[in-house]
Design brief:
The complex is a heterodimer of chains A (358) and B (133). Chain A is α/β, with parallel strands linked by helices and 358 residues long. Chain A has helices at residues 33-41, 61-76, 100-108, 125-138, 214-233, 251-260, 264-268, 273-276, 283-292, 323-326, 333-338, 345-351, and strands at 17-25, 29-32, 51-54, 83-89, 115-119, 144-152, 167-176, 182-191, 197-198, 207-208, 242-245, 300-304, 311-319, 341-342. Chain B has helices at residues 3-8, 10-15; strands at 17-20, 27-28, 44-47, 51-60, 73-80, 85-90, 103-113, 120-128. The chains are: A alpha/beta (358), B mainly beta (133). The A-B interface holds A 28, 56-60, 62-63, 66-67, 74, 94-95, 98, 103, 106-109, 293, 327-332, 335, 339, 341 and B 10-11, 14-15, 47, 69-70, 89, 91-92, 94-95, 107-111, 119-120, 122, 125, 130-133.
Chain lengths: 358, 133
């Protein structure tokens, strides 16, 4: 095999691009991890998070994306007719064939002059849509593109994933840097064929490679993506006020942050997994919305997602002077987390379609 | 319901898009192309804000065919800020004390599924109003 040529690895369009609007959505139901433990392990043993967010009977990736997109639109102040791409990354699209994105585009008023599409790459489908939107706007093919990462994650009853597989996500409108609330300084993507987690077509629940999901998968991809991007930008962890990583549980992002040289304080604001669970394609992105709710102009943010199969998207962001005046146009991520109704395992089983009715 | 009937009403159902009468400026929902006040033609689209208040409500424990999956649910008459009275489900209200006059806002939710193989039907419901940040 030929050696990879030396190239500048950072992804950066000629035209500056930034986030002109952002919005979160987290459903209101919460299943404490202790409930999963009570039902499947007699209440013994540790739990990976406190509780996870669960979608209601009338919610799915489409309805949740609509609300997050409306929040992003409210903060952007732009007319939905200017959005030339509506891209939704998820593992839980309600249809196998029939785009979620056309329904969302219609509901927010972005149809018909728009490129609607659904994206798939395990837990990084949302940041993948984000990366593509940066390119779409950066190339001047369009002025505005909407990228969403949203999931109602699946976990087999009794499996380790059932403690954490949550629901929620976030929407971002990418546009010209001059109008942006947050500028994209540069990004980078790192991918290899690593089978740590998958769900075959038509199967309801995913399979995972147990401990294989750690070192060669999550840690290698996130670390490589973060380090390559920071080297390209000549940046170091202390240059960032905030960092947010994919959050399959509480320990993984804490450890990868420490390995890279970030402090607990830098990841605190975006670390939502203990309170909402792993929201898969929305995980790092909804963490970013919580950071944007409190960040100040000039603050730098490093975001690195991870999707099984496997790959990571890393982005370096810088808050502009426009953020503070716009963020109050939509509900904060914390207000969605605070809107909490606890349910028991039986209610959860009904809401998530785990009961056989006929 | 036929696929075509769902398709025809998608904008009004997903986003409360109604009409405004060009003569007397009355806001119309659902859209009917003729002003119910002055009788003039009214085909100009109008995007409702989605804000309103509960005019009356009732909780259903027995549902029409096709709506059983979300039982029990609450149905309300909602008086929109712009005037019209619409019938819709209230959502995110289990455990909430309901009352006439309660401020609500529109959300787009799943109304029903046409069986395991049919289409998913989405549309407006109302929930207790969230505050912006």
């Amino acid at each position: 095999m030929m050696e990879t040529p030396q190239i500048n690895r950072m992804l950066k369009p000629d035209r500056g691009v930034g986030i002109v609007g952002y919005g979160a959505y987290i459903p209101r139901f919460r299943l404490p991890a202790s409930e999963v433990s009570r039902v499947w392990r007699g209440g013994s043993g540790g739990v990976p998070i406190e509780e996870k967010a669960v979608a209601g009977l009338d919610e799915d990736v489409i309805t949740m994306s609509v609300e997050a997109a409306r929040n992003a639109l409210a903060r952007s102040g732009i007319h939905p007719g200017h959005i030339r791409a509506v891209w939704i990354g998820s593992e839980s699209h309600p249809y196998s064939v029939k785009p979620s994105s056309t329904i969302v585009a219609e509901a927010i008023g972005a149809t018909p002059h728009t490129l609607a599409a659904d994206w798939e790459f395990a837990c990084k489908a949302g940041t993948e849509a984000f990366q593509a939107a940066v390119g779409f706007v950066g190339s001047r093919m369009a002025d505005y593109a909407l990228a969403i990462g949203m999931d109602t994650a699946q976990g087999r009853p009794g499996d380790a994933l059932e403690y954490t597989a949550g629901a929620g996500g976030a929407a971002f409108i990418l546009g010209p840097e001059k109008q942006s609330l947050v500028a994209v300084e540069g990004s980078y993507s790192f991918a290899t064929d690593t089978p740590d987690f998958w769900r075959r077509a038509d199967e309801k629940y995913p399979e995972h490679g147990e401990r294989f999901t750690g070192e060669p998968a999550y840690f290698r991809h996130i670390t490589s993506a973060a380090q390559t991007l920071m080297e390209s930008l000549d940046a170091k962890p202390s240059d960032y006020q905030f960092a947010v990583f994919h959050q399959p549980n509480t320990k993984f992002p804490q450890r990868v942050a420490r390995d890279l040289g970030f402090s607990g304080e830098q990841i605190q604001a975006g670390l939502l997994v203990p309170r909402i669970g792993n929201v898969y394609a929305g995980s790092a992105l909804v963490g970013l919305t919580a950071i944007l709710d409190i960040a100040n102009p000039g603050d730098r943010i490093l975001l690195v997602s991870y999707g099984s199969g496997a790959g990571s998207d890393a982005m370096s962001l810088r808050v502009t002077e426009h953020l503070t005046s716009r963020r109050e146009a939509a509900p904060s991520t914390e207000s969605y987390i605070a809107r909490r109704t606890e349910i028991d395992y039986a209610t959860y089983a009904r809401y998530r379609g785990k009961l056989t009715l006929q | 319901m036929e696929v075509s009937s769902h398709w025809r009403v998608r904008q009004q159902r997903y986003a409360l898009v109604g009409e405004v009468c060009p003569s007397c400026e009355v806001k119309i929902f659902p859209p009917r192309d003729v002003c119910p006040e002055c009788g003039d033609e009214a085909k100009t689209h109008f995007q409702f804000s989605g804000r309103g208040e509960v005019y009356s409500y009732t909780t259903l424990f027995d549902a029409p065919q096709g709506h059983e999956a979300q039982l029990p649910y609450t149905l309300a008459l909602v008086k929109l800020e712009e005037g019209p009275l619409v019938t819709a489900q209230l959502t995110d209200v289990n455990g909430t004390k309901l009352e006439v006059g309660m401020p609500v806002e529109m959300v787009t939710r799943k109304l029903r599924s046409d069986g395991d193989r049919g289409m998913l039907v989405y549309g407006y419901k109302f929930r207790p109003r969230l505050q912006a940040a």
